[in-house]
Design brief:
Layout (H helix, E strand, L loop, with lengths): L3 E4 L14 H12 L3 E5 L4 H10 L5 E4 L4 E3 L5 E4 L4 H13 L5 E4 L2 E4 L3 H15 L5 H7 L4 H4 L2 E2 L3 H5 L6 E7 L3 H12 L4 E4 L5 E6 L4 H11 L7 E5 L5 H6 L2 E4 L5 H6 L2 E2 L7 H11 L1
Parallel strand pairs: 1-2, 1-12, 2-3, 7-8, 12-13, 13-14
Antiparallel strand pairs: 3-4, 4-5, 6-7, 6-9, 9-11, 10-11
Helix pairs in contact: 1-12
């Protein structure tokens, strides 16, 4: 019997309108009423995840930054694992050298060491990927007013920034429409045994501590509750869900998932625009 359900957000619980469907929300709450725990597992920062989930009427725990942090329903940090600051500096230097957008996910918000020009281009790249019907000119007109830009805090001196003992970096993110360059960076940085390098989409790269993975933290949470891996259900769609989908046998790939995820998942549900999460949960709780 499934006792814990873990769902990714973007491309999974979130549809192409950037919403959580009412059907998904109703089914998740129904599962919780049956005594089944529900947890969000996302690459997002907690501050970028909780409001959308809370607005859907869902109260739950969160695994954020791909496994770098665990928070409860009230946002209290229960666990965290950060990237060594020396390595943060080395990663930033490599990305800057290749003129790649660099965003730091920290315990105090989102920061960037990139220039305003590079940040704007990153916003254009991301919006274009998710909203291909928009022209570059249309996006450029509003780029600096877009939340993807306004949420950023600019860093003038990375060394001075990292000297702040209160600052902890859980994840480093990069965006680019140069897929070949991103793949090269993934291969280069992925050779470091202290780092985990993955992605949510083909246009991005996500770097965390090597032990900051969704499956590792989810297994720890399950064990703390006395649940076996066979009592955990997971749902995802992309590269940063790979280890989670592979580890737990009650695994569902979204209908819109990348081929690599569908290949290793035990089941395939409908896509994120058809409330695939809710339909997967219903299959399990009805069974």
């Amino acid at each position: 019997m499934v006792k814990l359900i873990a769902s990714d957000m973007d491309g999974t619980l979130i549809n192409d309108k950037h919403e959580i469907s009412k059907e998904d929300a109703i089914v998740i709450k129904e599962a919780q009423l049956k005594g089944i725990d529900f947890i969000i597992t996302t690459g997002r920062l907690y501050q970028e995840a909780f409001q959308q989930v809370r607005d859907a009427g869902i109260d739950c725990h969160y695994i954020v930054m791909n496994g770098a942090e665990h928070r409860d329903e009230d946002g209290k940090i229960l666990y965290s694992i950060d990237i060594d600051k020396k390595q943060v500096k080395e990663i930033v230097d490599v990305l800057n050298k290749n003129n790649l957008y660099t965003e730091l996910y920290t315990n105090k918000g989102l920061y960037t060491v990139s220039s305003e020009e590079v940040c704007v281009q990153a916003v254009v790249t991301k919006i274009k990927f998710f909203e291909p019907e928009k022209t570059v000119d249309e996006i450029l007109k509003t780029a600096k007013k877009h939340s993807e830009f306004t949420k950023l805090n600019f860093i003038d001196h990375i060394n001075r920034f990292l000297e702040d003992e209160e600052i902890k970096v859980g994840k480093i993110l990069s965006f680019s429409d140069d897929i070949s360059l991103l793949d090269n960076m993934k291969n280069l940085l992925g050779k470091n045994n202290n780092l985990s390098v993955t992605a949510s989409f083909k246009i991005n790269m996500e770097i965390t501590h090597s032990d900051a993975k969704k499956d590792i933290l989810l297994e720890k949470i399950a064990q703390a509750k006395g649940y076996s891996n066979d009592e955990v259900m997971v749902i995802g769609d992309s590269y940063n869900d790979y280890t989670m989908i592979k580890k737990f046998k009650n695994s569902f790939a979204m209908g819109n998932a990348i081929p690599e995820i569908k290949e290793i998942a035990t089941y395939v549900t409908e896509d994120n625009n058809s409330s695939g999460v809710g339909k997967a949960i219903l299959r399990v709780i009805n069974k």
